[in-house]
Amino acid sequence: MSTDTCTVRLTGLRKSYRVGEASVEALKGVSLDVRSGEMVALTGPSGSGKSTLLNLCGLIDTPDAGSRELGGIVIDGLDELGLTRLRREQVGFIFQGFNLVPVMTVFDNVEYPLMLLGMPAGERKEKTMTALQRVGLETFARRLPDALSGGQRQRVAIARALVKSPALVIADEPTANLDSTTARQIVDLLHELAHERNASVVVATHDERMSSHCDRVLHLIDGELQ
Ligand SMILES: Nc1ncnc2c1ncn2[C@@H]1O[C@H](COP(=O)(O)OP(=O)(O)O)[C@@H](O)[C@H]1O
Ligand SMILES: [Mg+2]
Fold it and tell me: Is the pTM for the entire model greater than 0.90?
């Protein structure tokens, strides 16, 4: 019997956006399972629905139809508070634009998800420094994000995503605009999250450097998985 646990189970997801009078159908019934310890690449042209799917998968947005399970919990029955709690505990996000808070130090950015979880200060500090060490930025803890290169900022964003040991990591084009060396570091970090920490990693990417290291590559076209 397989000991694999399925972290994410998405079934028949549909999502449309209203644009004035018109409606854009971004996802037309997408089903996807991702196991613990699996790193999945989501590829497809711009506008094919990758970000929409990641946002539904990461509980940032709500589908029009279909069902979602995260760690065996059926999402659709949860109220806003339950959703927020699950997202804070279980999901780490990495975005193309890093989304760091510019007025907060590197340390404070990484610590922030632990504050949201109500973790005591001593434990927060220890976990934050461990995460910064993991991405090789412990000596940058007191700096502001502005004082860092793009690649360093993305590593801070990864530290912020991994600090709470999430079951699911969502990354939306995390290596876009990064040089090869930095892109390789990002790939290695995500790979380690999946394969050594047993997280499920779902990464939208145009980047062959990324998709070639994933366990599975999925292709989305016009809101449908191929
Ligand atoms: N907030 C939004 N409002 C209106 N249309 C949107 C919105 N977000 C995405 N879309 C549309 O949904 C489709 C899928 O977009 P998206 O999920 O961002 O694709 P991708 O990430 O693959 O580029 C596109 O046609 C896009 O224009
Ligand atoms: Mg996108």
Answer: yes
